[in-house]
Design goal:
Number of helices: 6
Largest sheet: none
Distance between the termini: 33 Å
Oligomer: single chain
Number of strands: 0
Shape: elongated
Helix content: over 70%
Radius of gyration: 16 Å
Structural class: mainly alpha
Length: about 170
């Protein structure tokens, strides 16, 4: 059974927007750090896949794409923690708008699903076009929005640095 990712994202957004403004106190620094680190690990998995796409074909492509798709979907778990913790921060609201309302996150999920489901039958030109289109959205919009989540989390953690989402080498 497949659920619409857009429906899940809309539900998460609706849930987080309905929370009282004091909810941020309920997320501990450890939960925020864990969410940030796990989200970064998932973005790294996807970026490693996108970096490797030019060298992958057949079942190697589809298998690696499935791992990347699973990581991309898992990102929502970690995003939710940060959405709840920082629901009233205008930078998170803006970053969420890019990811959810503008459909950029969903477009990456759709592309990864296309790689996983149809990659073995695609021509090299089709693979390169899908990769280029995916990286255009992910590198130009999705990863900068995730960086903003990480910046806000880093400010709260006050640990002397800010994480950035890992970029693919072909960004």
């Amino acid at each position: 059974m497949q659920f619409s990712l857009a429906l899940v994202l809309t539900s998460v957004l609706s849930f987080t927007q309905a929370l009282p403004s004091g909810i941020a106190a309920r997320a501990s620094n450890q939960q925020i750090a864990d969410a940030q680190n796990s989200w970064r690990a998932d973005t790294s998995t996807v970026s490693q896949f996108l970096s490797a796409v030019p060298t992958l074909r057949g079942t190697k492509l589809t298998s690696a794409a499935q791992v990347a798709l699973d990581a991309e979907i898992d990102e929502l778990t970690h995003k939710k923690v940060l959405d709840v913790a920082f629901a009233s921060d205008s930078r998170i609201v803006s970053a969420n708008d890019v990811l959810v309302n503008q459909g950029t996150f969903q477009s990456v999920v759709d592309a990864l699903r296309d790689f996983a489901d149809n990659g073995a039958s695609k021509s090299e030109a089709e693979i390169n076009t899908l990769l280029r289109n995916t990286n255009s959205v992910r590198c130009g919009k999705v990863l900068p929005a995730i960086d903003m989540y990480f910046r806000v989390a880093g400010e709260k953690l006050n640990n002397g640095g800010f994480l950035l989402a890992t970029r693919p080498t072909n960004c």
